[in-house]
Design a protein that fits this description.
Elements (H helix, E strand, L loop, with lengths): L1 E7 L2 H17 L4 E7 L2 H4 L13 H11 L5 E5 L11 E6 L7 E5 L13 E3 L3 H10 L4 E3 L5 H9 L5 E5 H6 L8 E5 L13 E6 L3 H8 L4 H17 L7 E8 L2 E8 L8 E8 L6 H11 L2 H11 L10
Parallel strand pairs: 1-2, 1-3, 6-7, 6-8
Antiparallel strand pairs: 3-10, 4-10, 5-8, 5-9, 11-12, 12-13
Helix pairs in contact: 8-9
Length: 318
C-alpha cells in the first residue's frame, strides 16, 4: 500500500513529515510512504504579519486542498497552526506525544530576559508573546519578525534585534540552538504557549479505514486530551490569530492544569485564569474555562484587543 503525506516545504515541516514517515514504515512494513511537498502561501508571503494574510490557517489550507483533491491521504501539521474548524470530508484524528512546549529567548549579547537593558529590541511575530513579554517588561521595544527559522536567526546575528523569541521545539528538532551564545527557556509561568504547541496533528481524508488505522496508531491519548481542551477553549471564545491569547493544558498526576491568558498586545488589560480538573472529568474543561472568562468580559476584551492589534500604537507590525 502507498500512503501519501501532504507537507509544507519548510525545514521544520519536512522534519515532521519524515518523522511520521519513519514511524509509519516501522509500524506498517507493507506501507510505502511518499511525501507530497507543497509551498503554502504562508511560506511565500514573508513581508506581512501573519494575521493580515489570513492567519495560521494559511499554513494548512493548501494541504487540505490537496487531500480533498485526492492527491494526499494524510497531512502532518504543527497542531498550533491548525484552525479549530476542519473542512467537511477531512478529520483531525490523532495528535502525537507533545514534546517540550516552552518558548525560548535567544540573544548574542544578553544572557536572559532580566539582563536585557531598557529599550532593548526583541523580535517576535506573535501577539501572544508580545502581550506576555510587555506585561513583564513594558520598557522593551517589540518588533515584528517574519521569515523561516534560519532567516530569523540570521537577523538576530546581524544585530537587527537584541533578542528574539521562538518556540524551543522547532530549534531543538533542527539542532539550531548550539550556535546561539545565550538561550533562556521561558517557563510556562513566564510565557504560556499557544493552543497545540509542540504537538503534531494528523489530518486524514474521511472514509479510508486503513489510513484511519495508520493515523490513529500515531496518537498519544494524554496529548490528545490536553490539546482538545485547548482547541475547545479557543473555538468557544472565537479567538483568531490576530488575538493575543495563550492557553495551555498539562497533565499533573491525575489532574489537568489549564492556564489561559487574554489581553492587549501591549501587555495591558490582562485577564488570566488557572483551572484544575481530574483527567476523568476534564472533557468539558476547555468549554468551562471559556464560559468563565466570557462571564468576566473576555469577548469584549478580545474585540478591543483585536481592534488595536494593528493600529498606530504598533506601527512596526505593518
Amino acid at each position: 500500500m502507498k500512503l501519501r503525506i501532504a507537507t509544507r516545504v519548510s525545514d521544520l515541516a519536512l522534519w515532521q513529515a519524515y518523522h511520521i514517515k519513519e514511524r509509519v514504515e516501522a509500524s506498517f512494513p507493507d506501507v510505502r510512504v511518499e511525501l507530497n511537498k507543497i509551498v503554502s502561501n504562508g511560506d511565500k508571503v514573508l513581508d506581512k504579519p501573519l494575521a493580515l494574510i489570513g492567519g495560521k490557517g494559511h499554513f494548512t489550507k493548501e494541504l487540505e486542498d490537496e487531500m480533498l483533491a485526492g492527491n494526499a491521504d494524510i497531512a502532518v501539521h504543527s497542531l498550533k497552526d491548525v484552525p479549530t474548524y476542519i473542512p467537511e470530508g477531512l478529520e483531525l484524528v490523532s495528535v502525537t506525544q507533545r514534546q517540550e512546549q516552552s518558548d525560548v529567548l535567544l540573544s548574542h549579547t544578553y544572557k536572559n530576559l532580566d539582563d536585557l537593558p531598557k529599550g532593548a529590541v526583541v523580535g517576535t511575530t506573535s501577539l501572544r508573546r508580545r502581550m506576555q513579554l510587555l506585561q513583564r517588561r513594558p520598557d522593551l521595544q517589540v518588533k515584528d519578525l517574519r521569515g523561516n527559522v534560519n532567516t530569523r536567526l540570521r537577523k538576530l546575528q546581524e544585530g537587527q534585534y537584541d533578542a528574539i523569541i521562538l518556540a524551543f521545539i522547532g530549534l531543538d528538532r533542527l539542532d539550531l540552538l548550539k550556535d546561539i551564545p545565550y538561550t533562556q527557556k521561558l517557563s510556562l509561568d513566564m510565557m504560556i504557549p499557544p493552543m497545540g504547541q509542540a504537538a503534531l496533528g494528523i489530518e486524514v481524508v474521511c472514509g479510508n479505514e486503513k489510513v484511519l488505522e495508520i493515523a490513529k496508531s500515531l496518537n498519544d491519548e494524554n496529548t490528545f486530551i490536553c490539546t482538545q481542551i485547548e482547541r475547545d477553549f479557543i473555538s468557544k471564545i472565537g479567538a483568531g490569530c490576530s488575538a493575543p491569547v495563550a492557553c495551555n493544558a498539562v497533565v499533573d498526576g491525575s489532574n489537568i492544569v489549564f492556564r489561559t491568558m487574554i489581553g492587549f498586545p501591549d501587555g495591558t488589560n490582562i485577564m488570566q485564569e488557572i483551572m484544575v480538573e481530574n483527567i476523568e472529568n476534564s472533557k468539558t474543561l476547555g468549554l468551562n474555562m471559556a464560559d468563565k472568562m466570557i462571564k468576566n468580559g473576555a469577548l469584549e476584551l478580545l474585540k478591543k484587543a483585536e481592534s488595536v492589534a494593528f493600529k498606530d500604537e504598533m506601527p512596526q507590525r505593518l
